[in-house]
Design a protein that fits this description.
This protein has three helices and five strands. It is an alpha+beta fold and 88 residues long. It is globular, with a radius of gyration of 13 Å. GO terms for molecular function: structural constituent of ribosome.
Length: 88
């Protein structure tokens, strides 16, 4: 099974994360299938490769909770399900 999850990068006290598609059995810094985004919590910046993310979601990849929150904030699920209303 493939998951979309965060991979820690950067240095001590200055963490940044890559959003990667990775096998569930791999460890956090393990070999990823593809890099699909970047998240910097300190500067609150996000860069996403939306076509690659949509490809993995359509193939059945499951995002982790934190990655799902990032996708909701950016609006990735609106592109995946354009006719569905969002409930709060």
């Amino acid at each position: 099974m493939v998951k979309l999850r965060l991979k820690r990068c950067g240095r001590k006290q200055r963490v940044v994360y890559r959003i990667v598609a990775i096998d569930v059995r791999s460890r956090r810094e393990g070999k990823d299938l593809q890099k699909v985004g970047f998240y910097d919590p300190i500067k609150n910046q996000t860069y996403l490769n939306v076509p690659a993310i949509l490809y993995f979601l359509e193939k059945g990849a499951q995002p982790t909770g934190t990655v799902q929150d990032i996708f909701k904030r950016v609006g990735v699920f609106k592109e995946l399900y354009p006719n569905q209303r969002e409930f709060h």
